[in-house]
Amino acid sequence: MNSFKLSLKLFKDNIKVYKLYLLITIVSVATFYNFLAIGDNEAFIAISERFQAASVASLSCGFILVCTVIYFIFNADEFFLLNRQRETALYMLMGVTQSKIGQVFAIESLLLGATSICSGLVFAVILSKLFFMLLAKSILLNVEIPFKISLNAIFIVIIVFSCIFVILGYKKYRVVKKSKLIDMINATKEKEDLPKLRCFKGILGVLLILFGYLVGIMIKTWELDLLFSSMTALLCVSIGTYFFFGSFMSIVFNKMIKNKNIVYKNVRLVSISNVYFRLKGNYRNLAMTAILCAAAITAFGVSLSFESVAQKEIIKQAPYSFSYESNDEKSKEKVVGIINESNHKLIGINENKFILGKVDYINYPRKVDYNNQAIIISHSTLKKNLEFLNYKRTDNIKPKGGQAVFIISATTLASPLNVLKKEIKIKNREYVIKKQEDVPFTGIIEKLGKKNIYVLGDDEYKKVKEGFNETSLNCVQISKDKEADQLISNIREVIPKDKVYPHINEYTWDYYAIEIFHFLGLVMSIIFILSTFSTIYFKILKDAFMDKEQYKTLKKIGMSKAQVEKSVHVQVGISFILPGSVGMLHSIIAMKMLEQIMNFSFNTQLVVALCLYSITMTLFYFFISNNYVKMVYEEGENNA
Amino acid sequence: MRKIVRVSRLIKEYGRLTNKHKVLKEVDLEVNEGEFISIMGPSGSGKTTFLNVMSTIDKATSGEVLIDGKDVNSLKENELARFRRDVIGFVFQDFNLLDNMTIRDNIALPLTLNNEKVEIILEKINKFTKLLGIEKHLDKYPYELSGGQKQRAAICRALITSPKVIFADEPTGALDSKAAIEVLECFVNINKSCNTTIIMVSHDARASSYADRVMFLKDGSISGELDSNGDKSEMFKKILNMIAMMGGDSDELI
Q1: B236-243 long-range Cβ contacts below 8 angstroms, 24+ apart
Q2: What three-state secondary structure class fits B246?
Q3: Count of CB contacts below 8 A, A vs B?
Q4: Residue B21 lies in a domain
Q5: Distance from the CA of A212 to the CA of which of A136, A303, A586, B147 falls in 20 to 30 A?
Q6: Shortest alpha-carbon distance between residue B100 and chain A (Å)
């Protein structure tokens, strides 16, 4: 029998064992294809041109997905190899060369890969229709997203996944080729060293995590650069997490094991010793799990909140049916006349008067205002406009004498900009910024939409406006504002064309983009969680395999089934719930950081995300524990 | 004297229906409290099976095993676990110490499973390790010890719950002769000082000469019995003679 035929036979025989493995790889292939297919979609291309972030997001989602898949396959392969060590040893004893066994295994994993890619792609194309339908539905716009099969995406999927499977297949081959017969026969008796105690690294790990947290939370207070601080926080927390599990936890477990009052109780001695001993080999996985979980929860929470962010952005970006600039009373009357003649009903007009001026920051080097020009308004103007919009605010934003309120421009979606308590100068008069607000005023319109707004007290505004020409923005609310094209062109006959700002459809693009984030984020985080947990599943079952001998001994010295179960629950609890919880903590901080950047409260979404995550984690926990018990207790029974 | 172990008409069969193979054929045995007995026999004579059935690791096909008056075949899973922890102790050929625990923790294990108080556990460890001469190695891991030391630690673990009977399956099988003598002297020592009954399986005549009584098993039934008068070298000669009489391959048994 040649290598290929043998591999094919083995593959067929083992298909049951590979069930979960195939499920995960097929879903990954399908999802990866869809991420790529979105990038190929015309509707999406239109958005990505406006929002680079959108394409970056979908690209990085794809990239992370591939990383997760590699990580998953790597761990699953290790488990399968371990499980088949005796089989390998048998082949060796029969005189098959190691490189041939390696070949057989490598070909088998290529077959697995080919199955995953083919069925994944078929599944992907079927899923693609659903995917786009859901996407269109989540965007809520009646935009028909055309369905088509993206050959480009298929090509990339095949290339990427073939590479993964070929490289990992080769790795398998190397492992088998280099293994020794004696190690194979004593598969479960492999000894692991005790983890070394590195106090410095352990403490450094905790400090790094805390520092990362601090940077994240203080991003606004310390006026940090967005890119710099987020990268710093990410790096510190990631490296810190590795050190935390690698060194800090081994110190903690070492102290625990030395304290006999803690461990000499029921099954604790068994569980804690096991976890402690495995730490050296497992800490990378624990850390990886924690980080992946953090990323997944954050992505899920943020995606959930994008829905509400989008709602909030609508009013900020398009508060009015349309608006126009005019100081002339006659023109204004004409506009009202035109509206009354049309089939639209006039709901209301509000006139906002303001000046365009330069604001100088004292002792603040950062450039705040676009083109160095800002809108300056009085508090009563803002108040009247907010009342006109029925926009409710609970807290008082009225600035006193030397104070000003800062409102970020309508086009800014997210920024960690913090100008609180900064001193500014407008026409040689000094003010302190008392508050930074996020309320609708101009909407996204040409020129004005990019400008930040400074609100002064009414008296101060009067003093400042002297010598300036006041601009007057007339904001109009009408019925059926989405079908107002004809009306707008009529108005443009009495008001200069570039001073009329029609109902901006542009906001829909922002909205569209946010909703895509929302959708991709949800899909991504679910895949994330599932693949992370399945990876741990294989990882922990690998431990269980190694523990078989030990539990056989324990049973002989009188450990009952209930005690075995208890011990396994504690053990799996530590190696699964612990990184899960660290991930939760990371994600809470990450959300708090995002809250500041986006000026939005994520609390509800955070709670929902954490709850869903905890439920999934608990289910997986019992699933893994039960399989573990089965493996070490019941399977061990036959040859006890 | 009180009988601590009583085995009657014990039968153990392997295989199913047409392919049955009787390993133990109606074996009877009575062991007095505080006795140190050795069971000898050539490979395939069923001595390990006999020990496994007596010590609750395996179940008998028929017959009765009473340990301390309890029928071990009738015990349920949880009772059995409890029984193993409280009434009997095990010593294995390959020690079966857990690699990921220190010697102290290994010895403490049965007591922690019993939820004993920490002070009592530590006190008992102290007492028994001194008795067996391994008190200096308590904080080491199994891989740091020699075979003899490991086996003494394993005996200590078996002893810590103050069991009525200790079952030892070829306890010197993996040791060199010097370490074997140390371990056997430990057995004699605890047998005398704690009055613990010891039932040992061995095919080593030298090891068996330490026992008070040696039972010979051949083809699944008891074929001979020797009592010691306390003189080891005389006992050793008697055992060799017995083996020669039984017609076994004496090389295998020395």
Answers
A1: B236/B205, B236/B206, B236/B209, B239/B40, B239/B205, B239/B208, B239/B209, B239/B214, B240/B205, B242/B214, B242/B216, B243/B40, B243/B205, B243/B216
A2: helix
A3: 82
A4: no
A5: A303
A6: 6
Of B84, B86, B112, the CB nearest to A266: B112
Question: Which range is least confidently modeled, A218-222, A635-639, B37-41?
Answer: A635-639
Please report whether residue B224 resides in a domain: yes
CA distance readout (Å), B111 to A263, A265, A269, A553, B195: 12, 9, 11, 15, 20
The pLDDT confidence band at residue B250, using thresholds 50, 70 and 90, is: very low
Interface check for B254 against chain A (CB to CB < 8 A): the answer is no
Q: Is residue B65 part of a domain?
A: no
How many domains is chain B partitioned into structurally?
1
Is this model's pTM higher than 0.90 or not?
no
The full set of domain ranges for chain A reads 1-188, 191-318+518-640, 322-503
Element (H, E) at A106: helix A98-139
DSSP single-letter state for residue A634: I
Parent domain of B224: 32-60+74-253
pLDDT tens digit string along B133-147? 888 999 988 888 888
A15 vs A18: CA distance, rounded Å: 5
What pLDDT, on a 0 to 100 scale, did the predictor assign at position A144? 59
| pLDDT value at B252 more than 60 | no
Burial class (CB in 10 A: 0-12, 13-18, 19+), B54: buried
Name the minimum distance, in Å, from the CA of B226 to any CA of chain A.
Answer: 30
Cα-Cα end-to-end distance for chain A = 36
Picking from B81, B21, B89, the residue whose alpha carbon sits closest to that of residue B49 is B21
- Taking CA atoms, what residue in B is nearest to A547? B98
CA nearest A501: which of A578, A449, A450, A454?
A449
Residue B69 forms part of a structural domain: no
Enter the ipTM: 0.83
Chain B contact set for A260 (CB, 8 A): 108, 118, 121-122
Is residue A394 within 8 Å of residue A380, measured between CB atoms? no
Answer whether B110 sits within 8 Å of A257, measured CB to CB.
no
Residue B66 contacts A where some CB pair is shorter than 8 Å: no
User: How does strand B88-91 pair with strand B165-169?
Assistant: parallel
Give A361: exposed, middle or buried? Use CB within 10 Å, 0-12, 13-18, 19+.
Answer: middle
Name the minimum distance, in Å, from the CA of B228 to any CA of chain A. 31
The CATH number of residue B40's host domain is: 3.40.50.300
What are the tokens at A569? 């629950």
